[in-house]
């Protein structure tokens, strides 16, 4: 595997220990105010002709609201697909910025709102468009494949966009055509896809701050304590953690795999926000967070994305009320970024995602 020069990830965007601004958590909701707040959001969604598109990592109350109001809670591929197909004039994206940008790129005529526009992603932050563009210029013989977790400007430089649920299939498709690939930004997902497909992939060097923290030795120890447990791993995790998995897949893939595996206990190596959906579908099972090194050691996010955590009920209600926090994408960048996204959506129509452990991979 070839890896590019390391890029300095701007951890200071959320890491208070460096003395710089941490990601700002949303205003707390008291038990007393919650019912009225939920009712207000339901009413505003109707009034504004808005649909709520949420990721599995956000606040469980927001996930439930999305589902009960005709929106969706899903992985990044389905978030993009759902928002695009839905007739609502406004899409409210409860997730991180690249998800809001993808919705805007696909639907430039619609209003796209987010509870907090400062909800970033370490992969996106570690891939500045100018440096990425120079990297592409240096390798003109390669097809440029970028993960969804990038800015609109980076996507505008790509031939294909992929999400974790379809990356393997798209890379295998390109490899079968004899294409060499330039991959960005997640080196662990890239490495996983490379090992499965055997494709020639030149990697950008970035990682997810949540998944990178899962530790294989501690996971082995935890497995020894729960020998019956099945291990679910998102492929943004390091290879030695993936090697211990019973199922590897996108967030939707992991939920589906858990349902098929029918275990009493699961160890979950992805953001623990997903456990809300797993518990709803498998109320009799136990779900345990996969181990990180812990707060006092190297762990910075401890199995919960600090940016996904910025989505709360108060700021959700406020953006619906005020229509502020609109996601805007430069129209020319948006026009170019739409090409690799639509290419992926078109490919996905005839190539349904498969996952290790899901019964079909
Ligand atoms: P999924 O597409 O699997 O939901 O992943 C998005 C993400 O950001 C994972 O960290
Ligand atoms: Fe980005 Fe990781 Fe957060 Fe997903 S969990 S949005 S990859 S930082």
Q: Total number of helical segments? A: 15
Instruction: Give the radius of gyration.
Output: 20 Å
The number of distinct structural domains comes to 3
Shape: globular
What is the succession of H and E elements? EHEHEHEHEHHEHEHEHEHEHEHEHEHH
Class by alpha and beta content: alpha/beta
The biggest beta sheet, please? 5 strands, parallel
Distance between the termini: 23 Å
DSSP summary, beta strand count: 13
Considering the protein shown, what is the CATH homologous superfamily of the largest domain? NadA-like
Q: What small molecules accompany the polymer chains?
A: 1,3-dihydroxyacetonephosphate, iron/sulfur cluster
Strand portion: 5-15%
CATH topological fold name of the largest domain: Rossmann fold
The CATH architecture of the largest domain is 3-Layer(aba) Sandwich
Unreliably modeled segments: 1-21, 355-361
CATH class of the largest domain: Alpha Beta
**What's the mean pLDDT score?**
90
**Main sheet: strand order:** 1-9-8-6-7
Q: Summarize the amount of helix as a percent range.
A: 25-40%
């Amino acid at each position: 595997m070839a890896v590019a020069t390391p890029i300095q990830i701007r951890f200071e965007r959320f890491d208070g220990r460096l003395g710089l601004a941490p990601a700002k958590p949303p205003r707390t909701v008291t038990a007393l105010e919650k019912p009225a707040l939920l009712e207000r959001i339901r009413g505003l969604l109707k009034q504004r002709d808005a649909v709520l598109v949420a990721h599995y990592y956000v606040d469980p109350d927001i996930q439930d609201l999305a589902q009960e109001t005709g929106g969706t809670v899903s992985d990044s591929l389905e978030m993009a697909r759902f928002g695009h197909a839905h007739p609502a004039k406004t899409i409210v994206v409860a997730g991180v910025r690249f998800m809001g940008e993808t919705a805007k790129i696909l639907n430039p005529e619609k209003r796209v709102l987010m509870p907090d526009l400062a909800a970033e992603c370490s992969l996106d932050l570690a891939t500045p468009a100018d440096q990425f563009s120079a990297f592409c210029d240096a390798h003109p013989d390669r097809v440029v494949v970028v993960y969804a977790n990038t800015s609109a400007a980076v996507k505008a430089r790509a031939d294909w966009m992929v999400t974790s649920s379809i990356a393997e299939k798209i890379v295998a498709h390109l490899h079968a055509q004899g294409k060499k690939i330039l991959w960005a930004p997640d080196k662990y997902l890239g490495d996983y896809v490379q090992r499965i497909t055997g494709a020639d992939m030149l990697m950008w060097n970035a990682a997810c701050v949540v998944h990178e923290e899962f530790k294989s030795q501690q996971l082995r120890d935890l497995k020894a304590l729960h020998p019956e447990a099945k291990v679910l791993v998102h492929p943004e995790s390091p290879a030695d953690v993936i090697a211990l998995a019973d199922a590897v897949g996108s967030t939707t893939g992991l939920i589906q795999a858990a349902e098929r595996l029918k275990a009493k206990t699961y160890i979950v190596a992805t953001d623990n926000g997903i456990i809300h959906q797993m518990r709803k579908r498998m109320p009799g099972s136990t779900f345990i967070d996969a181990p990180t090194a812990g707060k006092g050691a190297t762990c910075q996010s401890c199995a919960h994305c600090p940016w996904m955590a910025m989505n709360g009920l108060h700021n959700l209600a406020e953006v619906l009320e005020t229509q502020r926090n609109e996601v805007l994408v430069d129209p020319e960048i948006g026009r170019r970024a739409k090409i690799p996204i639509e290419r992926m959506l078109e490919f996905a129509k005839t190539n349904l995602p498969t996952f290790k452990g899901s019964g079909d991979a």
